[in-house]
Amino acid sequence: MGKLKISLIFLILAFSFGNVLLAQNFSEFSTDSEEYLKQMGSLFSKVNVKEDKDQCEDMFEKFVEYWNMGSFSKEMKENIKTVSNLMLKRRLKAFPDFYYFLSSNMALVEFDHSKKSYEAWHNSVMDLVRISAVQSLCGLFWKQAFIF
For the segment 60-114, what is each residue's pLDDT rounded down to a tens digit? Predict the structure, then answer.
């Protein structure tokens, strides 16, 4: 009976750990724009809830257009990649965290915020992503920041 319990526990842990490894194929986003977009698309493709996944796909399609059309400056693209890597290291979720982060960047462009406004927002995001309680605060922050 003891061996069966140990085997069962081992299988459960191995399965759980395997799912974590499969959920994310990379530990850092690429600095190459094309590869970054592929990796981000891969992250969104793993969203499980259908409504959330559909919402992510729609937003990401628009984000890619903004990215490729030059709506984001070179500085903004670098900042997006930097924050994305920090979020990835913190194991933040594709939805809602990455979803609201990318949506907020698009909104800043859509509503023609000044460079000063963008920099203040970006600095706040950097501070937020660096704090230890980030996972519990991000969802609330993205929703608040998105509604400006």
Answer: 999 999 999 999 999 999 999 999 999 999 999 999 999 999 999 999 999 999 9
Q: How many beta carbons lie within 10 A of that of residue 72, not counting itself? A: 20
**Six-digit token string for 57:** 């796909």
Long-range contacts made by residues 80-86, C-beta under 8 angstroms, separation at least 24? 80/105, 81/29, 81/31, 81/36, 82/126, 83/122, 83/125, 83/126, 83/129, 84/29, 84/36, 84/40, 85/28, 85/29, 86/126, 86/129, 86/130
Q: Which two tokens stand for residue 116?
A: 């000063």
73 three-class SS:
coil
Whether 56 contacts 96, CB under 8 Å: no
Cβ neighbours for 148, distance < 8 A, ≥ 6 positions apart: 107, 111
Q: What span, in angstroms and rounded, lies between the C-alpha atoms of 112 and 118? A: 10
- State the pTM of this model: 0.76
DSSP string, 80-114: HHHHHHHHHHTT--IIIIIHHHHHHHHHHHHTT--
Taking the C-alpha atoms of residue 39 and residue 33, their distance in angstroms, rounded to an integer, is: 10
